[in-house]
Amino acid sequence: MAQTDRAVVIGGGIGGLAAAAALYRAGRDVTVLERARSLDPAGAAISLAPNALRALDVLGIGDEIRDLAAWQGDGGLRTPGGRWLSRTSAEATAARFGGPLVLLARATLVDRLAALLPPGAVRTAVTAALADPGDGRRPARVSTGDDELEAELVVGADGINSRVRAALFPLHPGPVYSGFTTWRMLIPVPGVEFASHETWGRGRMWGTHPLKDGRVYAYAAAMTPAGGRAPDDEKAELLRRFGDWHAPVPAVLAAARPEDVLRHDVHHIATPLPACHLGRVALLGDAAHAMPPTLGQGGNQALEDAVVLAHHTDELAAYTAARLPRTTAITRRAVQAARLNMTANPAAIAVRNLAIAALSKAGPALFLRGFDGIADWRPPYAAVEAHGGKREREST
Length: 396
Prior knowledge:
Blueprint: E1 6-10, H1 14-25, E2 29-33, E3 45-48, H2 50-59, H3 62-68, E4 70-72, E5 75-78, E6 84-88, H4 90-97, E7 101-105, H5 106-114, E8 122-123, E9 129-132, E10 140-143, E11 148-151, E12 153-156, H6 163-168, E13 176-188, E14 196-200, E15 204-210, E16 215-223, H7 234-242, H8 249-255, E17 262-268, E18 277-278, E19 281-283, H9 286-289, H10 298-311, H11 316-341, H12 346-362, H13 366-369, H14 390-395
Parallel strand pairs: 1-2, 1-12, 2-8, 5-14, 12-19
Antiparallel strand pairs: 3-7, 4-7, 5-6, 9-10, 10-11, 13-16, 13-17, 14-15, 15-16, 18-19
Domain FAD-binding: 7-311
Keywords: Monooxygenase, Oxidoreductase
GO molecular function, one term: FAD binding
């Protein structure tokens, strides 16, 4: 029997679960179809800026996440030799954007989002395909191979290689290689104290940040041809590229096991989609606007998408109007940031470092300026006062 009040979400990552939670709070019957056998997320940790925390306030878990996460901002930008180019503080971040920048394990966020859904709402090990996007007169249809679901709304949250996006816009060129690969790890590093930092080298970068649970989140990136892999293992590759950088980089690498290191090439959607919806189907997150991680906004923008979509389910054109210009602009800024921090030209690096140091002495650090117009976003409707934002209100 058709359930036309149903919302079907294809993809059980952060964006898909957040969309399902937002739609469930809005009174929808939601079903999440996830291809993997579990919701265990790929990746290590996620940085949540104030804009994402405001989206989580709408879902009722903003303050819970603030409590679980490590507040960031006490640190800055360094050179491979250890010289500080720019420094800032958690207090400065909160003062500028009305809330903190926080870091926590992706698995923690996924667990909290999944807990917002009713039992049975998430179905794993299901390969879903869009059979019909529907229109104003008929529902959308999703095929699972064994079954077909009709829905008033289908959400394509199936990632950068989205099959839903390809079905909606078959002529779109899809994602392109961003020019660099990344490594990530989330590990304990006993006995090592450090300030959070990101370090920019010649065509390479490294970041190290503590989590509240005592573990360390470290990430690295390097300009390299697509599809490359280490001849031995990825820890050895990191040692070759970063082993002589300033502390605590060598200690983090010493504490890591080869199996702790995740490596992924970075791709982004360089050509914006014509819309974020078609028929009764909406796209969100990487399926709609995959971007380089250089602004840390991929997951943050997916959370924004989720609450905005729940606000505009009766008029998906309004969802596109609200999201497409913003995410297109942020993607372009992330690409520009990658060009800045991943340059391999020695002269450009010297000019860049001098400019960063001078700008940071004259006013807010470059780290903070990079979030202007991004971290200060607020939902298109007020979060229910009883459901979060207390920490943000206290900081303003």
